[in-house]
Specification:
Radius of gyration: 20 Å
Order of helices and strands: EEEHHEEEHEEHHEHEHEHEHEHEHHEHE
Shape: globular
Strand content: 15-25%
CATH architecture of the largest domain: Alpha-Beta Complex
Mean pLDDT: 86
Number of domains: 2
CATH topology of the largest domain: Quinone Oxidoreductase, Chain A, domain 1
CATH superfamily of the largest domain: Medium-chain alcohol dehydrogenases, catalytic domain
Distance between the termini: 11 Å
Length: about 375
């Protein structure tokens, strides 16, 4: 099978490796059908490690990538091609999407006890990390999966009406749903989504469904802002071209926005958002950061009573009928997949990554696998 391997910064090569075999009856084999790139994937492509369970330890989490490195995408759609004799939940022919990065919480740590297992301190990541012969999700044409008891809650069926490329958006769409849930948008709110790259554009799409009074997109890319307009933004602002404080004061009558969702991953933007916030603004920090911010002044948080909330990863929000909200929105066509996602053939993955990191495609970029 073909596998994407990083051999250096921006040096990705498609190699041929033996097909994986099932190590036990609890495993299954699936063919990758489509995968989209997370910002963490793009960071590794450019030579930086994304943060891990340590989270706050920037030194430990941002060491250089060790090469060769099996390039990853945890946003993927699969078709099951072989199941072990002990696998009962899935069968050959099932189409599945990654829904959660974690393979379930431990059930014992403070996070799990508090009802937020996606922040489990055990941070048991996707189970194929347990073996060295199985490529990371979306890295190769085939992936072996542990379907044991600890691994049953991070894959979800793809409805028949959803194409594979939409299935690859289930995981990031779940991240977006969680961020918007944290924001608690109401019809009278003025909402700012700051950073409309891949995740930000999904957050904007979900936020638009809540029909706030005004939905504002801020970015530094004219290309991404034009996409944001098509995805539901009422107002688009290029941060490189205007005085943000003056523009926001004009748009809100001096009151400032009710909600700011930060999705840039740039620490200085969080400081700008605190400055831009009005009295009682809710700031949701959904971006992933690779370094701390300098010059932090906490006084405006106190003085303006700003609520600051973090939003981490794809919490499993379900409908009353037990369907993942992200799957429900995609299935009903409420997320515009064609506007969000540009896809390339797997053999053109280098071009896809080049265009993604240079803002020439997207805001989400992915690959479609043959076969």
């Amino acid at each position: 099978m073909k596998v994407a391997m990083l051999h250096g910064e921006r040096d990705l090569r498609v190699n041929t490796q033996p097909d994986p075999e099932l190590p036990s009856p609890h495993w299954m084999l699936a063919r990758t059908m489509a995968a989209s790139f997370c910002g963490s994937d793009l960071a590794r492509y450019m030579g930086a490690q994304a943060y891990s369970s340590r989270g706050l330890d920037f030194t430990a989490d941002n060491k250089p990538v060790e090469y060769p490195y099996c390039f990853q995408s945890h946003e993927a759609a699969f078709e099951v091609v072989e199941v072990g004799t002990a696998v009962t939940r899935w069968k050959v022919g099932d189409r599945l999407a990654t829904a959660l990065v974690l393979a379930g919480g431990c059930g014992r740590c403070p996070s799990c006890v508090r009802g937020v297992p996606h922040t489990c301190t055990g941070m048991r990541l996707m189970p194929q990390w347990k073996v060295d012969f199985s490529p990371w999700l979306g890295a190769g044409e085939l992936t072996a999966f542990d379907c044991g008891p600890d691994s049953a809650d991070w894959l979800t069926p793809i409805p028949d009406e959803l194409p594979n490329k939409a299935g690859a958006l289930v995981e990031p769409a779940s991240c977006a749903v969680h961020a918007v849930e944290r924001a608690d948008i109401k019809p009278h709110h003025t909402v700012v989504v700051w950073g409309v790259g891949g995740l930000g554009a999904l957050i904007l799409s979900v936020a638009a469904l809540h029909r706030p009074r005004r939905l504002i997109a801020i970015d530094i890319s004219a290309y991404r802002l034009e996409k944001a307009k098509r995805l539901g933004a009422d107002t688009i602002i290029n941060a490189t071209e205007v005085d943000l404080n003056a523009v926001m004061a004009d748009l809100t009558g001096g009151a400032g926005p009710d909600i700011i969702i930060e999705v840039t991953g740039v620490p200085e933007v969080v400081l700008q958002a605190i400055e831009l916030a009005g009295f009682g603004t809710r700031l949701v920090v959904a971006g992933v950061f690779h370094r701390p911010a300098d010059g932090f002044n906490p006084l405006p948080i106190h003085f303006k009573e700003i609520d600051i909330l973090g939003s981490r990863g794809p919490y499993a929000h379900y409908t009353a009928d037990g369907e993942l909200v992200a799957v429900n929105l995609l299935r009903r066509g409420l997320i515009d997949v064609d506007t969000l996602l540009d896809t390339y053939a797997f053999e053109a993955i280098n071009q896809a990554l080049h265009d993604a990191v240079n803002g020439l495609a997207g805001p989400k970029v992915g690959v479609i696998y043959g076969g």
